[in-house]
Amino acid sequence: MNLFRSASKWLFAVAFASVFSTHAQQPPDYERQPGVAGNITSVGSDTLANLMALWSQEFKTLYPQVKFQVQASGSSTAPPALTEGTATLGPMSRELKPSEIREFVRTHGYPPLVLRVAMDAIAIFVERRNPLPGLTLQQIDAIFSETRFCGGPKPLTNWSQLGIATDNDPAPIRLFGRNSVSGTYGLFKIMALCDGDFRSTVNEQPGSASVVLSVASSQGAMGYAAYGYKTAGVRALPIGETSDDLVPLTLETVRNETYPFARFLYLVVNKPPSQPLPTLEREFLRFVLSRQGQQQVERDGYFPVRNDMLMRQRRLIE
């Protein structure tokens, strides 16, 4: 297996081992607290846009005096907004880069607090009637990458190369993906392309919803996007090391890390060491990490964090 993919899979396996090794406790119910009011500004991930909307709407039913402003322009916009103090929360669909942490530390003297608030997977979508049974990791790289660092022997550019016959062979594979400020783009580049270069024919979209819509409505299309944006018009392909061990994208395969492109979703916040968070920020994060908050995760099509991990995350903000 390529070293880039091996490293990413090992890091994710370590995270999962720590998350799921202990007996799960039930997440606590969220209890309304007095004196919660003010404004929350969220700048970051498009993948988390719908989930932020669900969390904020539910939170506002508890606290009508709270106002939210959510800007979902990509994970790469979260760190500078937090560093500069223009955002309260930074939703991200990838981990912080070392350079982003260094810049935050240079400004504030300490690193930001990073919380795992949901789980997701990057799906390879095709139109729902497409008969393709699945893809190997080398095939995905050969389809989306110009460099083929994952070992594909040749580019895959049309459906006949994948065994799919059409009326106008050779029919090209129309590719859709995210733009470069997206955490999904950056993570897919590492996990699926072995940190190679995207093919110039990948049509970059501003959000995962746009990718899914494009795949559903375009003949011969394929795209990668956050699984939580799946609609009835598309199908998520099973993927695997070989065509004999294709893994479907399910709750179980995401949680046990057998699906190759599983990931955590994060909320990043500016919390000075040994100092409490402001009341509003603390209560919103406590809500996100409660039973009610994780129910919204499931409602949006993502996967809730294991209960014992929720408890550890809550201790970081108390």
Q: What descriptive keywords fit this protein?
A:
11 strands, alpha/beta, two-stranded parallel ribbon, D-Maltodextrin-Binding Protein, domain 2, secreted, signal, Phosphate_ABC_transporter, 2 domains, 7-stranded mixed sheet, 318 residues
Short note summarizing the structure:
Belongs to the PstS family. This protein has 318 residues and is an alpha/beta fold. The relative contact order is 0.21.
Protein described:
35% of the residues lie in helices and 19% in strands. The protein is built from 11 helices and 11 strands. The radius of gyration is 20 Å and the shape is elongated. The model is unreliable at 7-24 (pLDDT under 50). The chain has helices at 3-20, 49-62, 78-84, 98-108, 137-144, 183-191, 208-217, 251-255, 279-288, 291-299, 307-317, and strands at 38-44, 66-72, 89-92, 113-127, 135-136, 174-178, 203-205, 221-226, 234-236, 239-240, 262-269. Strands 3, 4, 6, 7, 8, 9 and 11 form a 7-stranded mixed β-sheet that branches. It has 2 domains: 15-119 and 265-317, D-Maltodextrin-Binding Protein, domain 2 (3-Layer(aba) Sandwich), CATH 3.40.190; 121-262, Periplasmic binding protein-like II (D-Maltodextrin-Binding Protein, domain 2, 3-Layer(aba) Sandwich). It is α/β, with parallel strands linked by helices and 318 residues long. Helix 3 packs parallel to helix 4 (98-108). The termini are far apart. One of its GO terms (molecular function) is phosphate ion binding. It is found in: Periplasm; Secreted. Its main location: periplasm.
